[in-house]
Design brief:
It contains 19 helices and eleven strands. With 438 residues, it is α/β, with parallel strands linked by helices. The protein folds into two domains: 21-134 and 297-356, 3-Layer(aba) Sandwich (D-Maltodextrin-Binding Protein, domain 2); 136-295 and 382-430, D-Maltodextrin-Binding Protein, domain 2. The protein is globular.
Length: 438
C-alpha cells in the first residue's frame, strides 16, 4: 500500500511539474528593427512560456559569415536565421532551409508584397518570411536644400544630386553634402555601387558571364562616386556603412543620404534624430538611361533544415512576421516604426499612411526594382544589388575591398577596376562559368 501511494505521488508530481523549456537560438543583425524585436519578445514568451529565446546579435558582415559557415557545415548552432534575399533561393536549392508553406491561413502569406515574396520563393514554396523589406531612396535635409537655393525633384538625376551635394556642403559647421556607403563588403559598399552602376548602364557580367569591370560604364560609375565623396562626403568614408551613416544623418552631419528605405522611420523619429522635422524623401537617382539606382532587399527569418526544434521555430517566425506584430509595434512605438516593405495590408492602413510620410515613396521604390532586368543591357543573372550565384559573396567582398581602397585613395580608380576584373574573371573561370580568359 505504501509503495502504491509513493508511485501515485511521483506520478502526480511529474504531471504537475512544468515541462522543460525548449531554447531557440536566434541569429540576427544589429539593425534597429531587429533590436526592437528583441525588446518586444516578452510578448512571444508570454504566449509561449515553454520556449526560451537565446539571441546572437551581430553586425551584418559577421552575421553573414557565421550563419553561412554554420549552415554549410551543418553545425547546428542556430535554430532561426536572419538571412537576406540573396541567400534564400541559393540555400533553398541546396536543401539547407525548411519550406514554410504550413504557417496557416491566418498567417496570410498572400498578403506579403509580391516583389518581396517572389524573392523568397523556390519551386513555388516559401523558404523564408520577411521581417522587413526595402529598396533605397534619397533622404535629405529640406532646410539645407532650401538654403542652397534648390528644390529636390521627386525623381532626381545623379547630376542634380552632385550639384546639390556640393552646394549643401559646409565643412566649417561639420555638414557634409552627402553620405554614402564606403565600408567594404558585398552587402555594404557594393550594394550601393552595384545599384548605382545599373543606372549608369554598367553590369557585373555580360550574357556570356564575362566580367565587365573593364567597360567604360564602370569607370564612369566609380569615378563619379569617388569624386563626389571627395567633394561632399564625410572624412574616412571607407569606414562608413549603414549604421555609421545613419548616425551621421541623425546628428545633422549629412545634407543627403542615399540608402535603405527602412532608414526613413529612424531619421524622421524625433526621439533619435535631431533633424527629424526637416527630412524629405525622393526616389533613387537615375542617369537618363531608364534605370534608377535603387535596390531590392529583405531581411528575412528562416529555419535551417537541420534543427530539431522546427515547431518552436515556426511559432517564432509567425509571431515576428504576422500582421499582429505590426500592431504590437504600433502600440508600443507608433505606426511609423512598424517594419516596412512586407505586407500589402500595411500600406492600405490609414493610420500607417498618416504616421509614415515615407510610405508611398517606399512602396514605389520597392515596386520599381526589377531583379530580372536590373541593368540597361541584358544580364544572365537575377539580382539588383547582387548577383544570385553562390560565388558572388566572395567575389563581391573582394571587389568591395578594392573599391574601398579607391575611395580611401590608396589605389587609383583604374587600379581598383583592374583588380576587380582580374579577381572576378579568375573566380568565374574556377567555377566554370567561363571556359577561357581570352
Amino acid at each position: 500500500m505504501t509503495m502504491r501511494i509513493l508511485l501515485a505521488s511521483l506520478i502526480t508530481a511529474a504531471v504537475a511539474s512544468p515541462s522543460i523549456a525548449e531554447t531557440l537560438t536566434i541569429a540576427t543583425v544589429n539593425n534597429g528593427d531587429m533590436i526592437r524585436m528583441q525588446k518586444l519578445s516578452a510578448d512571444f514568451s508570454k504566449k509561449h512560456p515553454d520556449i526560451k529565446l537565446n539571441w546572437v546579435t551581430l553586425e551584418e558582415a559577421d552575421l553573414r559569415q557565421q550563419v553561412t559557415i554554420d549552415i554549410a557545415t551543418k553545425g547546428g548552432k542556430f535554430d532561426v536565421l536572419t538571412i537576406g534575399t540573396y541567400e534564400v533561393p541559393i540555400w533553398a536549392s541546396e536543401g539547407w532551409l525548411l519550406p514554410l508553406d504550413d504557417l496557416g491561413s491566418e498567417y496570410d502569406a498572400e498578403d506579403i508584397l509580391p516583389a518581396i515574396r517572389n524573392g523568397l520563393t523556390h519551386k513555388q514554396s516559401l523558404f523564408a518570411v520577411p521581417f522587413y523589406g526595402e529598396s533605397s531612396m534619397v533622404m535629405y535635409r529640406q532646410d539645407l536644400m532650401a538654403k542652397a537655393g534648390l528644390s529636390m525633384p521627386s525623381a532626381p538625376t545623379w547630376k542634380f544630386i552632385e550639384e546639390a551635394a556640393v552646394k549643401m556642403t559646409d565643412r566649417a559647421n561639420g555638414v557634409n553634402g552627402i553620405c554614402l556607403r564606403g565600408k567594404a563588403g558585398w552587402g555594404e559598399n557594393m550594394a550601393f555601387l552595384t545599384a548605382t552602376a545599373n543606372s549608369f548602364g554598367a553590369r557585373w557580367f555580360d550574357e556570356k558571364w564575362q566580367p565587365q569591370f573593364d567597360h567604360p560604364t564602370w569607370k564612369q560609375t566609380l569615378n563619379f562616386y569617388v569624386d563626389l565623396m571627395k567633394k561632399a562626403g564625410p572624412a574616412a568614408p571607407e569606414k562608413n556603412g549603414f549604421n555609421e551613416n545613419l548616425s551621421l544623418f541623425q546628428n545633422g552631419k549629412c545634407g543627403m543620404w542615399i540608402d535603405a528605405t527602412v532608414a526613413a522611420s529612424f531619421v524622421s523619429d524625433p526621439k533619435s534624430s535631431k533633424v527629424a522635422d526637416d527630412v524629405g524623401f525622393a526616389l533613387a537617382p537615375d542617369n537618363g538611361l531608364g534605370r534608377r539606382g535603387n535596390w531590392l532587399w529583405a531581411w528575412n527569418l528562416a529555419i535551417p533544415a537541420g534543427t530539431a526544434k522546427s515547431a518552436s521555430a515556426k511559432a517564432f517566425l509567425k509571431w515576428a512576421t504576422d500582421k499582429q506584430y505590426g500592431h504590437l509595434v504600433a502600440k508600443t512605438d507608433g505606426w511609423a516604426n512598424v517594419p516596412p516593405g512586407t505586407r500589402t495590408s500595411l500600406y492600405e492602413n490609414k493610420d500607417y499612411q498618416v504616421a509614415a510620410p515615407f510610405a508611398k515613396m517606399t512602396l514605389e521604390s520597392i515596386n520599381a526594382a526589377d531583379p530580372v532586368k536590373p541593368s540597361v543591357d541584358p544580364v544572365p543573372y537575377v539580382g539588383v544589388q547582387f548577383v544570385a550565384i553562390p560565388e558572388f559573396q566572395a567575389i563581391g567582398d573582394e571587389v568591395g575591398r578594392q573599391f574601398a581602397k579607391a575611395l580611401e585613395g590608396s589605389v587609383s580608380v583604374d587600379e581598383a577596376l583592374t583588380a576587380a576584373q582580374v579577381v572576378s574573371k579568375r573566380e568565374m573561370l574556377k567555377a566554370d562559368y567561363i571556359k577561357t580568359s581570352f
